[in-house]
Amino acid sequence: MTVVEGKPVVGDSARSLGVRIGDASTDDIRLDDFGNVHPGTGGMSVAPSWRDLESHRIPKRLSTAAIYATGSNHDACWRMGDGEFCDAVINSVLRLTVTDPIHGVVGPEVCLSKEQFRSALADTLDQWSIDES
Question: Is the model's pTM score more than 0.85?
Answer without folding.
Answer: yes
